[in-house]
Amino acid sequence: MFMRNLTVVCAIALATSPLLAEDSGEEKATERTSATLPERLEETGERAPMEPPRSSAEEVGEIDVSSNAFGVGQPATEEQISAIDIDVMPDGQGLPEGSGTFADGKTAYDQACAACHGSDMEGVSELGAPALLGGRGTLADDSPVKTVESYWPYASTLYDYVHRAMPLQSPGSLSPDEVYAISAYILGRAGIISDDPDTTLDADSMAEIKMPNADGFVEDPRPDVGGNE
Amino acid sequence: MPNDEKFPASRYGPAERHMAESLVEIERQMLADPQQEDCDCKEGMFNGLTRRGLLAGGLALGGGALMSGRAAAEAPPGAVEYYVQPDPTKEQGRLILQDDGYGSRSQFESEVRWRYPTASIESSWSMTPLASGHGIITPSGLHFERHHAGIPTIDPRTHELILHGMVDTPMRFTMDDLKRLPAVSKIHFIECSGNGLTEWDEPTLKTVQGTHGLTSTSEWTGVRLSTLLEMAGVSDGAAWILAEGADAAVMTRSVPIDKAMDDAILAYAQNGEAIRPEQGYPLRLLLPGYEGNTHIKWLRRLEVSDKPFMTREETSKYTDLMPDGSARQFSLEMEAKSVITFPSGAMKLPRPGFYEVTGVAWSGRGKITKVEVSADGGKTWEEASLEGPVLPICHTRFRLPWKWTGEQAVLQSRATDDTGYVQPALSELVDVRGLNSVYHLNAIQSWHISEDGEVTNVHA
What we know:
The structure holds 2 protein chains of 2 kinds. Chain A has helices spanning about 1-15, 25-30, 55-60, 80-85, 100-110, 115, 155-165, 175-190, 205-210; strands at about 75, 100, 200, 215-220. By secondary structure, chain A is mainly alpha-helical. Chain A folds into 2 domains: about 1-60, no CATH class; about 85-210, Cytochrome Bc1 Complex, Chain D, domain 2 (Orthogonal Bundle). Chain A has a two-stranded antiparallel ribbon with strand order 2-3. In chain A, helix 5 packs across helix 8 (about 175-190) and helix 7 (about 155-165) packs across helix 8. Chain A starts with a helix and ends in a 10-residue tail after the last strand. By secondary structure, chain B is α+β, with helices and mostly antiparallel strands. Chain B contains 9 helices and 24 strands. In chain B, strand 23 and strand 24 form a beta hairpin. Chain B is globular and about 80 Å long. Chain B starts with a helix and ends with a strand. At the A-B interface, strand 1, helix 4, helix 7 and strand 4 of A face strand 4, strand 5, helix 5, strand 13 and strand 15 of B.
């Protein structure tokens, strides 16, 4: 009987909850953004226990349960993957179509980046924004200067990170063309590629870039110290 | 059912029965009034006690007990300031569930995480107050934090995890899906590899919270990553897996596939309840023994590859610059380390006499097998007792009775793990790694005790 009461309570909750009325814009305006307390069971007033988690496979019924022992999860479609598959690898894998010039990059940089990283990419330490240029040849010094120019081993990382997480106040807002252009401007100013205003970066040229510190990284040799018993 | 049957005199005293009956009555009234149950203020069975039900309940209970309600509050974070009775043996205490069904710590406890003063508030870290910690578990609300772009608020009903790349069947999982799979619970520490980064050159921060507070231990519950990888079918030649978070940094790290198959957990729970938002709610990657940055929070995507992805965090950050200008990359394991948490920096011992020296030791490679303590700056060592259970890749509590004579002393602890590795002196690390490697400082910590009992952070 408890189960039936619970079912009734839940059915009412489902029918009336705006959370589940997915397509109604009007109801979305009042959608809760926090959990409600567990429902009460009739008669005893106990709090209802958690609902057993539902398998998305069971709901959609698209999965071949015989090939999926747990009957849990669904195949991810190309479309679903590409919507969030944003990483870019050193060989250029993941770089999107598009291109941008050094000159366009200066415009975009001044607009989107200079406020934190400085108009000459010198960084603004009070903001915690690092310098992007300089420091070549300092990595073995007492005070090494680690920048995109002096330290970053792959140009792909610059594209990936700027596209992924910059600018700080509107991350992920730059178009591929803008990211190519900003990359061209930073790498041009760093003397890693030409600083001619027409210098253009795209997927192919990006993957060709050899960074000054590309060979500067070694495997972890630890344990390197610490007496061994 | 009449209440005298429900609360028979054989098992309930008169006062207990009176209270029980009153509570049933309050509940009945609240249940009978759908408006009340549906209103925005419905926070708990007895929230009515502070609103409408207060009247009914107060009358039913004769009023007195409810006087111990919430006082005007200047309570510490995580606490509620309640009326303090002059003599708690002479009046009823605060009623059960006045906290709406979720408890809080005492109003007389106030230890908090401390934010390291980074220039950027968005990318910052806060540290666990190890000095006041007990045992081996860190309270969830005091677990250290490291965020690169703030703490996202994520609705678990819409959060999904996609697993793709070099697999036979790319898969998509809801949180419900993950919770339907076989689960494991493991108690592990997580330590940021930047723990102690201020301490290479000279003693800088004063307290153990500042020098060591980027390590914390929780019980983590979730599904093994290997379970998902086996479901999707990993292709031949797969060597790395990218983990990506759903925060504004879209934080990414590459993880060796062997680690992913070995003991990685996709954790949705911490210390017996859902994982805290600042720890990655609703889902974080747990890589036992690996540096904290790799334990990607707010996990949304896993991509299998034959190569590492060379993300910003594993190239420009979290790499260890050596004196020759080369940098170590993928230095993932946290090596054995220990620290005395009592006595520790910025304390003052009130007088000579008996003190129990205590602290924590941990290793990303396995179990702690030994902790030695020195009171003379490392000239002589005495073995501390390890408090069980001693778990692999977990904080281990050590204790040693000590009599402070009132003379100057330098307290140190030195951990050994079950690989035979012995925690090194700072000078040994610096000899090999120089002063610019930033990460992975696991050296012996020294606390100087002055003749007047002041405890300070020193290099000895």
